[in-house]
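We close this part of the discussion by returning to an individual protein. Part of our work consisted of pairing the sequence of a single chain with a tokenised description of its backbone. No coordinates are needed to read the tokens, only the vocabulary itself. The amino acid sequence and the backbone structure tokens for this protein are reproduced below:
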Amino acid sequence: MKNLILPTLGGLLMLAVPAKADMAAAEALIAKHSQLPTFEAPGPAFDAKACMKDKKMFVIPLTNANPFNAAISQGFVDAAAMVGFELRDWETQMDPAGWIQGINTATAEGFDLIDLQGGLPPEFLVPQITEARTAGVKVTATHNWDATTQTVPDFMDGAANTDYVTVGEIIAAWAMVKTGGKVNAIVLGPDEITPTAPLRDAIIGYLKDNCPDCKTQYINVPVNDWATKTQPAVQNALLADPTINYVLPVYDSMSQFIVPAIQIAGSSAKIVSYNGTPFVLDMMRDGDIVEMNVGESLGWVGMAGTDANMRLLCGLDPVTKLNTPAYIFSDENVATAGNPATFNDGYGDVHRAGFAKLWGVE
């Protein structure tokens, strides 16, 4: 609360004046991430081809069944082709047994580095990771932890992390601006996925710190329960409180179960989320419930993860944060994502030339 001092006959009177939402800062954040991404090198240029001449990399995604993970893996594959080294993208179906088999295969076949990609929880694989590292294999992760609020465990050799906090703040700022500082939102996420905590906390924390009249409630829906529990949870919340104006799932794939809940409840609530998943961008283009989506070029993510891994293998200064900018899609620009949308259209392609120059393979 801010205090206003007014003169009175008997001296001074302190009147409490309610704090106001910091709308200018929210608008500035939205404006910054509405600009087409530009390339900023994550580190000094180096001769990647010479460095990687006799080295090979092994990528284990959370699951190949998720187009999100598949698109990041393709970025790794493209980067390896540009530089000219061996890279294997391991097939998994969100199965710990498959992850373990991948680590064991990479170790047995003499790969130099294993990357656990796109949300795969390394804490479930500590014995296998330790065995691989003992055998001389470096183990890293790409797009798993937040770059500022989460610590990479000591049992890992490194990680290229994502700025999840900024993503969460963009989502919160958008809802705040659109409602004039009167957000009443449901926030949803699966607590078992590593990036959920920083995304969830950033959304809720930003509104708490910058919007005194905003309200949130959080619902945990594990990934395996999305198809059965997301819709009833959202529908019940909307029916209990018809003033809810935003539903903010931390991962946009939940939207397919949220839209029916909004429709059945007769609510005017909008969806704002993160990941730039193509089918959700298609929903935005063709409907009016998905209002905004924060995305990032996943081909760029894969190349940036490759860059960090090559630097580690080459003994260069480590890169711990992916240089992939968060980018806002809304009705104004969603057409640039393609029809149907893809994970890479709409962002431009400055990263390809940027990395080629950085690695000396122009």
